[in-house]
Amino acid sequence: MHAHLGDQLVVESPATGATHRDGEIVGLHHEDGTPPYDVRWSDTEEVTLVFPGPDAHIRHLEQVHPADVSETRAESTSAATAPPGTVDPGDIGRRVAVERRRRGISQIETARRARMSPDYLAYLEEHPADPGLGTLIRLADALGTTVTALLGGGIGLPPGQGHALLHPRFRELGPEECRALLSTHGVGRVAVSGADDRTVIVPVNYEVVGEAIVFRTAPDSVAAGAAESEVAFEVDRLDEAFSQGWSVLAIGRAGVVTDPDAVGRLAQRAHTTPWPGSEREMWVSIRPTSLTGRRITADDQ
Q: Which residues contact 33 (CB under 8 A, 6 or more apart)?
């Protein structure tokens, strides 16, 4: 008998062959995957050391068909009846997919690193599923992140809660690298002069079109105050797991896009609608006259 982390241990009734008990293997005691195993039982959530008997067999992760996922411990409760605060199973797959694409890793390579079936990973990214702890540990390790991050832990907290690197390396970025980091779209922050000449900073969904940074908003919004003035626009990315990241600051004059054809082209190529919703069809364009950035990494990188 050989198993991997995340596989299921199934104990069947000697008389009927029906599943009597099952659980996820969350701990191995031998490198070759032979017993005993630490098993989290689906009926009690308790973890016990198990020496499987003749009535037990391993259901490998690769053998779990999407239709069988409902048999696992976490899917015994549907999302509709889950208590407040429970992680939506579909959220885990979306976070895995986003992190994988952000790091430029294919599904096949991610599955290889996480020692799982590519078909299961594809299913996990596209359907509601609630993988066990062993699976999450392997996925987090394969993607260079944490289980907490894949579960959405700390989503309500500001970034940067981790500890600083022991030997950080801080460097300034050139304009070309700044443009590359801005990429084509994302979420950034625009600083505008609000009421009483106070500076207000608001997040916006943005696109990069040529040399311009563009976003859409409502005419009566705070962000609309950026029009016809010099503004600052900032984008950053933090890697909480490694306490490193970068930021890019663009400064330039903003103006409203009024040409109907230009507005139409912007609407067609937009990657998303503004997250706040409602009618936000006023496009604002920022043409940077200054583009600076900084990056923090470990000193040995």
A: 2, 3, 4
